[in-house]
Design brief:
The complex is a heterodimer of chains A (304) and B (261). With 304 residues, chain A is α/β, with parallel strands linked by helices. Chain A contains 11 helices and 14 strands. Chain B is an all-alpha fold. The chains are: A alpha/beta (304), B mainly alpha (261).
């Protein structure tokens, strides 16, 4: 199937530094594609390049068959965007926000009016139709932003950290809606640093760091190709000392973070037998997940 | 600076939905807004016009309050556009991120900047119409030529919106606007014949006055109120248009640079 978003050798520099450093991307129709990465990895800049809001310093871009940035305007007619930070109109009601936004796409007031009930229903905001934006909760604002991104019935939806700052209930509702959109055949490109979000929603993922894509594939492929299948987390005051003596021989790989030792293994049995002889250590045995991959690829140190 | 920022503006009618958005916001607080447009000039004209005017026989061949009325039209329209382009424009660009939301749609930055200028001019039009209503109500002029003050208000609005947007494009925050008002707008009010004729100024200051846009606005407004066709009207219009077009082009280049970060 043909790609609806395509980037080749994409480069963006700010002040001599390559914020986006030679990215190749190809996202197919109907796919939910996740861009993972720590803060400052270049995710938002990549989205802005793909939307044609900033000009690249190198590489080729195509969005829905239009060359970007030269024909980004035409492409954006068929695109919806959920930005990272709220930019709803605070002076307007829920319905007015949708109405005004639809006009930016050249829609007639009658066409927008006809779409309103469906959009409000989708966002669970039918009862808030005439409520002003400042009276909405964080979750409601996010849902309104999502509804606003759908006003033009787009083929592609960009979502920049769609659930950051939301409580678990609000987050689950957004996830449910995003899955609904993929069921309807929409193409989704989202950035996130929540691994469970990426694992649940995305068909394919790319991990981004320092402006480059360092690994790409389905969530399962990323785990299988980057990391041992089993993880044993060992906690306790003496965990580090224990790890230096025993984990070296019993685990393929281990990492120390504070008072926790992460042991990555193909077969956990010998390690678990050893841990049962250590009453002062607590441990947790679990399958490897995307967060393990992420931390392995991008490191455990803080990015500040 | 990257040459791409200076490419010619690509204008379209796509600024209209943004204008309608701003109008919808304005409608929600139309009452206080109209009151402000009326009260400010009335206070000036009555206070200074009667207070100061009582001590003056005639200024420039007319009563002082009529003299002041012409200045007030220009001063009020200039202020409306400037406040809109600076404070409200900055809120839309930076604080509320309204521009960001709009730019994610098929609307371009060129359309957004044009919408700001046209919207600022619309606020000037409203302000000019309010002052004109006061002039008629106080019986300061009965000339049908005063109707030309309405397109003049629009032109003054385009000019000062465009100039104000240059400041907005450079502003790190609201405090920055004090420089513009203190160093440019306030001196301009005193140099451009709003409160007293320019020929009262030393000749050096008169030549400064001659290049300032507000002078040209006043030189159009005052004869119109006095029922005469302004001398050299075409050159005054050309100067105001020149400032508007230059301001638009420079601010657009600066906004392109600012938003490319």
């Amino acid at each position: 199937m043909s790609a609806v978003i395509r980037a080749t050798g994409l480069i963006k520099r700010y002040g001599g530094q390559r914020v986006v450093d030679g990215i190749d991307l190809s996202i197919r129709k109907g796919e939910c594609f996740g861009l993972l990465g720590p803060n400052g990895a270049g995710k938002t800049t990549t989205l802005r390049l793909l939307l044609g809001l900033i000009a690249p310093d190198g590489g080729q871009l195509e969005l829905l068959g239009h060359a970007v940035p030269s024909h980004a305007r035409e492409a954006r007619l068929r695109v919806g965007v959920v930005p990272q930070l709220d930019n709803l109109d605070p002076d307007f009601t829920v319905a007015e926000n949708l109405q005004v936004y639809g006009r930016y796409f050249g829609m007639s007031d009658a066409d927008i009016e006809a779409r309103l009930p469906e959009l409000l229903e989708f966002a669970n905001l039918a009862h808030k139709r005439d409520a002003r934006v400042p009276t909405l909760s964080g979750g409601m604002k996010r849902r309104l932003t999502l509804a606003r991104a759908l006003v033009n019935d787009p083929d592609v939806i960009f979502l920049d950290e769609p659930t950051t700052g939301l409580d678990p209930q609000a987050r689950h509702l957004i996830w449910q809606r995003l899955r609904e959109l993929t069921r309807r055949g929409k193409t989704l490109l989202l950035t996130t640093h929540f691994m469970d979000e990426a694992e649940r929603l995305c068909h394919r993922l790319a991990v981004m760091d320092n402006g480059r894509l360092i690994s790409e594939g389905t969530p399962r492929e990323l785990i299988e190709s980057n990391i041992e299948p089993q993880v044993v987390e060992v906690f306790g005051e003496h965990a580090t000392a224990w790890a230096r003596g025993h984990a070296v021989s019993l685990a393929q790989r281990f990492e120390v973070s504070g008072e926790t030792v992460f042991c990555y293994v193909h077969d956990a049995q010998p390690l678990l037998l050893e841990l049962q002889r250590q009453p002062e250590l607590r441990y947790l045995h679990r399958p490897a997940n995307l967060e393990d991959v992420f931390l392995k690829l991008t490191g455990r140190e803080m990015r500040e | 600076m990257n040459m791409r920022y200076f490419s010619p503006p690509r204008l379209s009618l796509r600024f209209i939905p943004i204008w309608r958005r701003n109008f919808m916001v304005w409608k929600k607080m139309a009452g206080p807004s109209i009151l402000g447009h009326l009260a400010d000039p009335v206070i000036y004209m009555l206070g200074l016009g009667y207070g100061l005017g009582g001590m003056l026989p005639e200024v420039g061949g007319m009563s002082y309050i009529a003299f002041l009325a012409a200045g007030t039209v220009c001063y009020s329209t200039m202020n409306s556009a400037s406040f809109e382009a600076l404070y409200s424009g900055f809120a839309r660009m930076h604080e509320q991120r309204t521009w960001e939301a709009i730019l994610n749609t098929p609307i371009t930055l060129d359309d957004v900047v044009l919408s700001e200028i046209v919207w600022g001019a619309s606020k000037s039009l409203l302000s000019g119409a309010a002052v004109l209503a006061v002039i008629w109500l106080l019986g300061l002029s009965h000339s049908p030529l005063t109707l030309w003050l309405i397109p003049l208000a629009l032109l003054v609005g385009l000019c000062f919106s465009a100039l104000g947007l240059i400041v907005t494009s450079l502003a790190p925050g609201y405090d920055f606007f004090m420089y513009y008002f203190t160093l440019l707008i306030t001196p301009m009010v005193l140099l451009c014949g709003v409160f007293f004729p320019v020929d009262q100024l030393p000749s050096a200051l008169q030549s400064v006055s001659a290049v300032l846009p507000l002078t040209h606005a006043v030189n159009l407004a005052r004869p119109l109120l006095n029922d005469t066709i302004p001398a050299g009207w075409l050159s005054h219009i050309a100067v105001l248009l020149g400032y508007a077009v230059t301001g638009f082009y420079v601010s657009l280049a600066l906004f392109r640079k600012r938003l490319s970060q």
